[in-house]
Amino acid sequence: MTDNDPAPKKAPSRIQQRNRTRILDAALNVFSTHGYRGATLDQIAREAGLSKPNILYYFSGKEEIHVTLLNRMMETWLDPLKDMDPEGDPIEEILSYVNHKLDMAIELPREGRLFTNEILQGAPRMEPYLIADLKPLFDDRAAVILRWMEDGKIAKSDPAHLICSIWATTQHYADMAAQTVVLMPEQQKREDGAREFLNQLFSKLLTP
Amino acid sequence: MTDNDPAPKKAPSRIQQRNRTRILDAALNVFSTHGYRGATLDQIAREAGLSKPNILYYFSGKEEIHVTLLNRMMETWLDPLKDMDPEGDPIEEILSYVNHKLDMAIELPREGRLFTNEILQGAPRMEPYLIADLKPLFDDRAAVILRWMEDGKIAKSDPAHLICSIWATTQHYADMAAQTVVLMPEQQKREDGAREFLNQLFSKLLTP
DNA sequence: CCGCTTTTTTACCATTTGGTAAAGACACGA
DNA sequence: TCGTGTCTTTACCAAATGGTAAAAAAGCGG
């Protein structure tokens, strides 16, 4: 029984892996800055160093590339939220989430912008995913935080809006980079300053 | 001397006013959801109830419409920040800014998304404006807040990142509406809850 | 009602868009 | 070295894109 299952999906060749990676990377650049409709296959092809028909050999169309990127992103993106441990120290857990989220915004800004673009457009391709996956996770984490509050371990506030505010403040440094760079030209101040500030902001909120 | 100055720009007729308004309103819908490149003149025309050539009778091209919208938006958008009074009560002033900004995000979400879209794209049309207008205002307000901190009137933190976090948390409710609606289906909880939460968040940060 | 300006429509146009068909180049095991 | 399956290119296409020219229609002051 080597690989003869109903769906005989053979392992992708080295070339396939390389080119699919190239395409997805180029597409991430284009989709994340111009949004779905503003992105063109020609630009993706140019950036990937492949011809347009060649790209359509690997993906069935523009939409499939976009969906692939979105799915891939959501997985890594939600991880830090999943990692929040209900048994851990509440303030530590939440601050650790803040810091992980900030790391991602700084290290993977394109992924962040891809998501923001999709939501700005009204989440036409993501909505089912938001309802099926994000919402349950969100509710669950909000419930965990609420329990912490009711147990008097952290100060009371609205858990849902707390999560949103963490998302918003960290995401800001990815999405609005073009603005932030103008307002705070020195990278040091931008990144380390952001971390220190956010830790202070949420520490104060959470400390009873 | 009725109107014979060097540039004899006659007053726009009623028709002109009405149609320019229609066009800008339709364009705001389209640009704010699809970004500059994703927006099409055809769609703007359809939404405005005018023909495409008719639109190009009022505006010289796609870009002029976009720029007009951006300029108009920036003016109203920066007002609340300008209104912060150095002589007023610091916490009151800052919280009032938070609340005004939140009002705008809730009442004028399209304008907010228009701006976010432009920044996501790297601010190609806005950067000069950011440098010439936003930056000086931003630095000035940061300086005001810093003075308040040094005078011991509010707790110390990074003023620049404070302003950014206010921007981020309030803007979130405009930009990410499609997500927020899924996560918090009841409008009441979304809007009033946001206000209460943000007031609490920034009160705690600022109280010495 | 007339004549003149403003506004709108019709008919285009070159370019770009997402996508396809089919031939050609390539890799690689037998 | 050959053949077979994988990959790439060339040559297209219909539709949509931003934009134009010019004629037709609508307003409107006199």
Fold and architecture overview:
Two copies of one chain form a homodimer. Chain A has two domains: 11-59, Arc Repressor Mutant, subunit A, CATH 1.10.10.60; 64-206, Orthogonal Bundle (Tetracycline Repressor, domain 2), CATH 1.10.357. The first copy, chain A, has helices spanning 14-38, 41-48, 52-58, 62-82, 90-107, 109-120, 127-150, 159-175, 177-183, 187-206. Chain A starts with 13 loop residues before the first helix and ends with a helix. Chain A has 208 residues and is mainly alpha-helical. The first copy, chain A, has ten helices and no strands. At the A-B interface, helix 1, helix 6, helix 7, helix 8 and helix 9 of A face helix 1, helix 6, helix 7, helix 8 and helix 9 of B. Chain B binds a DNA duplex (30 and 30 nucleotides) through residues 13, 15-16, 19, 40-42, 50-54, 56-58, 61-62.
Features:
homodimer; about 210 residues; mainly alpha; Arc Repressor Mutant, subunit A; Tetracycline Repressor, domain 2; 2 domains; 10 helices; globular; DNA-binding
Biggest sheet of chain A: strands, sense, closure? none
What structural class is derived from the secondary structure elements of chain A?
Answer: mainly alpha
CATH homologous superfamily designation of the largest domain in chain A: Tetracycline Repressor, domain 2
Backbone CA Rg of chain A: 20 Å
- Stretches of chain A where pLDDT is under 50 for at least 5 consecutive residues are 1-9
Mean pLDDT of chain A: 93
Report the portion of residues of chain A in β strands: under 5%
Q: What is the H/E order of chain A? A: HHHHHHHHHH
Question: How many separate structural domains of chain A?
Answer: 2
The number of helical segments of chain A is: 10
Q: Helical percent range of chain A?
A: over 70%
| Oligomeric state of the chains present here | homodimer
